[in-house]
């Protein structure tokens, strides 16, 4: 499957390919893990399709360099946390935030199926927090990379605030009926750039009206 993604140029860099090769999707998706389609993981939620995981890791590649820190909002199955964690080794950190408590626990169990990921969870290189990720997780900010795995009804300003000036980049689906991936970067002087990339279909990101 990974070789197909590479052949079709969804995976462009060796770093993304190697990181995805180190993570067995079978630990995270109970049904048809190696089909290039989203799969149900319970609680009305899906693990994203492999090509979307590849797109996200590829878009954030320069922001997932060794030693960098990343936030995954709506971390769901935990799959992408493991991929990102491999990319930022050594010394980098990855934080997942997920608002369904059962999925926080399940994603930890999924990660523990591989001793390398179990170790990363234990020593804090991977953390999974329960809560509303549309607010980000200020305790771990700023982040070089922010990935959002659910479609936000509008651009969450808290997440932009938590991007590191100079290196920060966010990959986020935005929209309700029509959704598109947006890439948001922050210059060293704090200037924010937003670009709309391509149309997608994600489960909704829950967001309080006042945020
Ligand atoms: N990248 C994940 C995507 C899971 S689907 C994967 O491939 O497994 C999106 C996830 O976002 C769901 O688990 C959903 O519960 C979660 N979610 C939705 N709104 C959220 C919010 N405000 N804060 C945190 N998680 C949220």
From TrEMBL:
PROSITE patterns: PCMT. Its EC number is 2.1.1.77. Gene3D superfamilies: Vaccinia Virus protein VP39 (3.40.50.150). Its main location: cytoplasm. The keyword Transport does not apply. One of its GO terms (molecular function) is protein-L-isoaspartate (D-aspartate) O-methyltransferase activity. Keywords: Cytoplasm, Methyltransferase, S-adenosyl-L-methionine, Transferase. One of its GO terms (cellular component) is cytoplasm. It catalyses: [protein]-L-isoaspartate + S-adenosyl-L-methionine = [protein]-L-isoaspartate alpha-methyl ester + S-adenosyl-L-homocysteine. GO terms for biological process: methylation. It is found in: Cytoplasm. It comes from the Eukaryota. Belongs to the methyltransferase superfamily. L-isoaspartyl/D-aspartyl protein methyltransferase family. This is Protein-L-isoaspartate O-methyltransferase. It comes from Saitoella complicata (strain BCRC 22490 / CBS 7301 / JCM 7358 / NBRC 10748 / NRRL Y-17804).
